[in-house]
Amino acid sequence: MKMEEVTKKPRKKSGRPLSFDREAALERAMLVFWRYGYEAASLQELTSAMGITPPSLYAAFGDKEKLYLEAVERYSSQRCSTLHCLFDEAPTARDAIERLLQSSAVEMTCPSHPPGCLVATSATNCSASASHVQEAVSERRDNVETIIRERLEKAIADGELPADTNACVLAGFYSTVMQGMSSQARDTGGNRDRLLAIANAAMRAWPAKNH
């Protein structure tokens, strides 16, 4: 047998190309998880909304857990990108936080998707077997809080906030307010006026500058 015959191995056939728009299917799956939560979203509901079969779901995304985590990552990336743009455009830290709360109130009550925030609500009350999913979602929430904290730290360094302001605590406070707004949005069916009133009330906790 010639050496070239030994070294030449048959090429593996590449996987069949997807017969559907993967990004569009992921977007629709995200909305299902947003509405029902991670564990309550059934495979039938997911595949029906995505317009695909279970084998296609497994081939494209792996399994339900991987699909969910990819949907959360998609949502979180878009949210963090929007947050960075919002903070970059705001002239002061106070304006940045106020715009964040107000825009969150609008987004959480937008009729184009389920009320509330996907990251704040979709993995709550999961069973012990899904604890690692909750941890992954918690990390995404922490990312938002970190962005807020870093903006507050800059405000302290610039003298916009009192030097003794605890940026971690203040960032945690506004992050908690947004999580509460998400719950309110779901409980009230998307009452925007209520959420905007909560946002305005939260801004009254903004530290006063020392004179």
From TrEMBL:
Pfam families, sorted: TetR_C_13, TetR_N
PROSITE patterns attached to this UniProt entry: HTH_TETR_1, HTH_TETR_2
Keywords associated with the record: DNA-binding, Repressor, Transcription, Transcription regulation
Any one Gene Ontology molecular-function term assigned to this protein's record: DNA binding
DNA-binding region ranges: 42-61
InterPro entries: DNA-bd_HTH_TetR-type_CS (IPR023772), Homeodomain-like_sf (IPR009057), HTH_TetR (IPR001647), Tet_transcr_reg_TetR-rel_C_sf (IPR036271), TetR_C (IPR011075)
Domain called HTH tetR-type: residue spans: 19-79
Protein name in UniProt: TetR family transcriptional regulator
Native source organism of the sequence: Oxalicibacterium faecigallinarum
